[in-house]
Specification:
The protein has about 120 residues and is mainly beta. Helix content is about 5%, strand content about 50%. The strands form two sheets. Strands 2, 4, 5, 6, 9, 10 and 11 form a seven-stranded mixed beta sheet that branches. A hairpin with a 6-residue loop joins strand 4 and strand 5. It is globular.
């Protein structure tokens, strides 16, 4: 059974940093992309970032470009999201996702979702 488990969320102040992790288990995600989405209060789930298996293709939402960095460690089946210069509007539940390619993840063609981790940024 495939499982994605996010960690690293929490309550921080504006301008702070957080690093989210998502560990995948159940099988090895050979050649598959991983990514992050978020859903803020009263909003729809939105794309944040995606990374191909090799790390050669990376996509970001415009709202996080220059502040967030996605990376992965295939040996650990883990994807990370380094979030710097956090803003109150980054407050959301952050979800890890697996898809067939980075472009597919950006298009929300998702095979597996994690349960999410809460990130709250106070002003």
């Amino acid at each position: 059974q495939v499982q994605l488990v996010e960690s690293g969320g929490g309550l921080v102040q504006a301008g702070d940093s957080l690093r989210l992790s998502c560990a995948a288990s159940g099988r090895t995600f050979d050649s598959e992309a991983m990514g992050w989405f978020r859903q803020g209060p009263g909003t729809e789930r939105e794309f944040v970032a995606a990374i191909s298996w090799s790390g050669g293709r990376i996509y970001y939402a415009d709202s996080v470009k220059g502040r967030f960095t996605i990376s992965r460690d295939n040996a650990k089946n883990t994807v990370y999201l380094q979030m710097n210069r956090l803003k109150p509007e980054d407050t959301a539940v952050y979800f890890c996702a697996v898809g067939p390619s980075a472009q597919a993840v950006e298009d929300q063609i998702i095979g597996y979702w994690g349960p999410g981790t809460q990130v709250t940024v106070s002003s």
